[in-house]
Amino acid sequence: MSTIMIPRASGETLSQDIEAIFREHSRLVYRTAYSITGSWQDAEDILQTIFLRLLQRDYPIEFTTGPGAYLYRSAVNLSLNMVRSRKRKNFTDDEVRPATRDSLFPTPVRR
Length: 111
Prior knowledge:
The chain is mainly alpha-helical. Helix content is about 70%, strand content about 5%. The protein has helices at about 10-35, 40-55, 65-95, 100-105, and strands at about 1-5, 60-65. It has a two-stranded antiparallel ribbon. Helix 1 (about 10-35) runs antiparallel to helix 2 and helix 1 (about 10-35) crosses helix 3. The chain is elongated, with a radius of gyration of 22 Å.
């Protein structure tokens, strides 16, 4: 089990450790997010979100299986959440739009 146990007073050391983890695993996180979302913008957002959350933690980071596995799982979860929320948003947008006469009864084409 790998654990980063650093007091909050030494935030510089914490950020250096997370920077080392970022350098080693950022490509894995990005590729994972991109393969699920299909968007490089979403993959970058997910990459940033994961590492910002690591920096903002108030408690030690415990990697039971190693940082790569933890970050991979985080990327999968965030990517799936993003895809689901987009589908849900598109579904509710379709429900909210009122039907118009033209959408219900299209005008026939006359020749």
